[in-house]
């Protein structure tokens, strides 16, 4: 552009800053940001938000907060996007007190928090096991007049399930219908988590079947949780059934889960079934690369009648 004597405008600079941030070249993004100001172009809220997001993606939260202060001093008011970006970063770091302070600051600035703001915070508190605070924020949404979406409900349900409050979680699921919201894969995964916490493998599998009938697709994490719950209860037949459904969807098991299952089968005198499973997985090119090493560690602690080498050679 410069060679053609065309002067880039703020919009152009913002795109370049954003591009550098997306590829992780934060130093270059900062350089372009400074160059823009040296050219006499006033940075916009988009300029600041883009660079703040860049800092947050690198875990440089203090730099992001300092830039927010700079934009305010220069007369550029932070937007909901500014706050949402910082709140999300603090939640990911587990710094929920700081994230909540930003929510309070938003309200003082008469900036209306969005559904994204609340979803981020509720999810943060749910991940930390603080369901009381998550529910308080959920109620605050209604007071503020912000309609909860399926992501909100999933965050609340997940939090309740993680601490074993499955009855309250079921009540929240029932509310979805009255709110004209449809449960998705994340909803079912959260409910499976709740039953897994209670070591209720049968209920986990029932919810999984309901999930599939609803047209939702379980991911690797859901399958791993199901298998893990069956293994904790030493219900190896159930674990094998889930594993077969997993490979039927072309999802590879991780080496640790597969090793524990094979070890359990060996200890219950079902070495042949373990061999057959390995053949099935190998035939679909889904065998974890480090399965031999992982199984060696696990089998060394238990029954060694079926060695990692014999498992590998069966493929």
UniProtKB/TrEMBL annotation:
Pfam families: PPR, PPR_1, PPR_2, PPR_3. Gene3D superfamilies: Tetratricopeptide repeat domain (1.25.40.10). PPR repeats lie at residues 9-43, 44-78, 79-113, 114-148, 149-183, 219-253. It comes from the Eukaryota. The keyword GTP-binding does not apply. InterPro entries: PPR/CCM1_RNA-binding (IPR051222), PPR_rpt (IPR002885), TPR-like_helical_dom_sf (IPR011990). Keywords: Repeat. PANTHER family: PENTACOTRIPEPTIDE-REPEAT REGION OF PRORP DOMAIN-CONTAINING PROTEIN (PTHR47942:SF69), TETRATRICOPEPTIDE REPEAT (TPR)-LIKE SUPERFAMILY PROTEIN-RELATED (PTHR47942). This is Pentatricopeptide repeat-containing protein mitochondrial.
């Amino acid at each position: 552009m410069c060679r053609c004597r065309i002067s880039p405008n703020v919009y152009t600079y913002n795109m370049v800053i954003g591009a550098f941030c997306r590829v992780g070249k934060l130093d270059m993004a900062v350089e372009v940001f400074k160059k823009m100001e040296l050219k006499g172009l006033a940075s916009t809220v988009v300029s600041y938000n883009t660079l703040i997001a860049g800092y947050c993606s690198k875990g440089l939260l203090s730099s992001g907060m300092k830039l927010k202060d700079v934009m305010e001093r220069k007369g550029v008011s932070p937007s909901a996007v500014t706050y949402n970006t910082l709140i999300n970063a603090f939640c990911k770091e587990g710094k929920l007190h700081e994230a909540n302070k930003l929510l309070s600051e938003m309200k003082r600035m008469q900036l209306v928090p969005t559904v994204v703001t609340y979803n981020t915070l509720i999810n943060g508190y749910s991940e930390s096991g603080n369901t009381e605070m998550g529910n308080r924020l959920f109620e605050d949404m209604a007071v503020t007049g912000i309609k909860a979406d399926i992501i909100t409900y999933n965050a609340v349900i997940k939090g309740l399930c993680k601490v074993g409050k499955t009855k309250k979680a079921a009540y929240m699921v029932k509310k979805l219908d009255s709110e004209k919201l449809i449960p998705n894969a994340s909803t079912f995964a959260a409910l499976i988590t709740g039953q897994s916490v209670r070591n209720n493998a049968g209920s986990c599998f029932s919810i999984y079947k309901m999930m599939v009938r609803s047209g939702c697709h379980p991911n690797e994490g859901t399958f791993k949780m199901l298998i893990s719950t069956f293994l904790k209860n030493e219900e190896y037949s159930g674990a094998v059934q889930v594993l077969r459904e997993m490979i039927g969807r072309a999802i590879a098991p991780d080496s640790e889960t597969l090793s524990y299952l094979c070890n359990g089968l060996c200890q219950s005198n079902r070495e042949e079934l373990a061999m057959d499973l390995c053949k099935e997985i190998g035939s679909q090119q889904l065998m974890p690369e480090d399965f031999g090493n992982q199984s060696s560690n696990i089998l060394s602690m238990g029954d060694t009648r079926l060695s990692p080498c014999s498992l590998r050679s069966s493929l």
